[in-house]
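Deadline looming. Please check this record:
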Amino acid sequence: IIKVDQKFDVPEWMSYHPHANNARKSNETNTIYVARDHLSWSESLPGAGRFIFSDRLVLTKRGYSKSKWALPDCFKEAKISYHKKPWKDGYFKSAGRGQEFVIMDNNGVEEWARNKIKESQIDR
């Protein structure tokens, strides 16, 4: 975790990152998260990369818009940022803000996420 402020000298490898530009450096919450070489829970998996597309990774409930997700029951009790009452008619309604959400400790959700990562192909 790197706090990027006016004092931070941006290394070359980070210079392309949008949070490394001078306009963002005045924001006191400006932070860049740098991945590990490997996942903390699996030395055999890279700490960064992108998934190769697979239907198994699609969260959207079939036949619905992209903000309506088919998620397992373990998510029903999960506390998720920006989502006070997200369950509607058999789907999870994703909030319209943000590109990532924080889920408070939930072993079921954590196990689901680990399995999604383990069963997917990752392109580094």
Notes: The helical segments are 22-25, 107-118.
